[in-house]
Amino acid sequence: MASSKDHANEAEQPQSLYAKHEKIHPRIVLGFFTRLKVLSGLILLGIYYIFPWLLWDGRQAVLFDLPARKFHLFGLTFWPQDFIYLTLLLMVAALVLFFFTSLAGRLWCGFACPQTIWTDAFLWMERLVEGDRPKQMKLDKAPLSFRKFRIKTTKHTLWIVFALFTGFTFVGFFVPIRELTQAVITYNLSGWETFWIFFYAFATYGNAGWMREQVCIYMCPYARFQSAMFDNNTMTIAYDEKRGEPRGSRKRDTDYKAQGLGDCINCTMCVQVCPTGIDIREGLQYQCISCSACVDICDDIMEKVGYPKGLVRYTTENVLMGKPAHIFRPRIFIYGGILLAVFIGIGVAVGNRSLVQLDVIRDRNSLFRETHSGLIENVYRLRVLNIDNQPHIYDVTVTGIEGLQLHKDREIAVERGGVMTLPVRLGVNPKQLKKRSNQIEFQLIARENSTITITEEARFLGPFQQ
Fold first, then answer.
1. Could you tell me the strand order of the sheet in which 70-73 lies?
2. Looking at residue 215, what DSSP letter applies?
3. DSSP strand E in 151-307: where?
4. Is residue 155 part of a domain?
5. What's the DSSP call for residue 202?
6. Highest-confidence range of 41-50, 105-114, 246-255, 346-355, by mean pLDDT?
7. 95 vs 229, 231, 334, 376, 396, CA distance in Å?
8. Cα–Cα distance measured from residue 81 to residue 71, given in angstroms and rounded to the nearest whole number
9. What's the CATH number where 441 sits?
C-alpha cells in the first residue's frame, strides 16, 4: 500500500492544463452522409473559386469594390447607403444558425463551415500523396529518410500552392480578378494585394493543414455556446447505449446475447474515422462537429456482421430514453417564422429600393441673396447617385412655393453606378414667401423610365417677414 509520503509526492508533481497534441489520421469512410458532405464541399468550394471569374453585363459578377465603394452581386449594386442590408444579412445568418442548431445540431460545422471544408480538401491531398490511414501513421513513425522527405515535401508543396491560390481568389473578390491575374504575371502587385494574398494563404495553410481539429476544439466559440441551443428534442449524432452495451469483440456466428454482450463489437472504427478524435460512445461532446462519419462507418460494420443499422445515428435524447420525439416544437416555429419574415423583408426592401439617390445640400455660405431682378435666390448642390445598371438622364422639378424658378448649368446625366454633383439656383418673388423658412421638395425623374424617381425635402430661406 502506498504511503502518505508517496501520495504527497504525487500531489506535488506539476500537472499540465492541456493534453499533448497527437496528430489525428481519420480513416476513409463511404456512406450516405459522407457523400452528402463531399457534395456540399464541392458546391461551396466551387462557389468560392468560380464566382470571381463570372461576368455579368460586362463586369465581374461578384466584386466588393472598396475604393469605389460599390458592391456588385450579379445584377445588383449596393452602396454604403445600403448598409442596412448587410445588417439584415447578419441577422439572417444568426437566425439560420439558431434554427438549424436547434433542429439538427451542428450541421453547419459538419457540412458547411469553411474550416471543415478546407480541412477536408487538405486531408484529400494528404491521402493522395501519403496513402490511407495506416500508411500515414507508418510514415510518421518512420525515421527521416530521402523517401519520407520527398513525400512530405510533395504534400506541403501541394498545400502551399493550394493555399496561395485560395489567398489569390480571396483578393479577387475585392480586386477585379482578371486585373489581379495580370498583375501576378507581370510581378506588379501592390503592397496590400501581396499582403492579403500571403496572409490568407498562411491562414488557410495553418488552419486547414496543421491545426485542423484544434481550431474547432479550442478556437471556435460556437463549440462553447452550442449547448444553449440544444434540448432533449434536438437531433444529434448519438450512440444507442442500451442497445450497444456491454460492448466486446466476438466471432461472427457467436450468440453474443447469450454471452451478455450488446451490439457494439468494440471495433473502434467510429473513433478512427472521427476528424476530432473523439469516441461518440462516451456521449454528446462539444468536440463533435456532426460530420456523420461515425454513422456511416458504424452502419457499414453493422451490415457486415449482420446486425441492424442505427447503433450510431441521428436521433434525440428523448428517443434514446424511450420518450416520444417532438422535433417540430415551438422554438423551431419561432426561429423559422422570424427567419421567413426577415427573408421576405429583405426581398421586398431590395425589390422596392429606389435606383437613384438624391442628396440636397444647401449652400451655407449665405442664407439667401437678392438678384438684380428683385428675386430671392438660394443655392443648392444636388448629389445624384445612379445605382441602376444603366446610364440615365434625369429631369428635376421643385415644388412647395408658387412661382419657384430653377436654374441649372447642364443636364443631369449620370453613368451607371456613377455620381454627379450639380449646383442649382432657386429664385422666387419675395411676395410669394409667407415665412422666413419654407419647405420645398426636389423631385428627380429618369427621362427614359419614369418609374425611377425620388423626392427629397429641403428648406428655402428668405428675408424676415413683418
1. 62-65, 70-73, 76-78
2. I
3. 236-239
4. yes
5. H
6. 41-50
7. 12, 17, 10, 56, 43
8. 11
9. 2.60.40.10
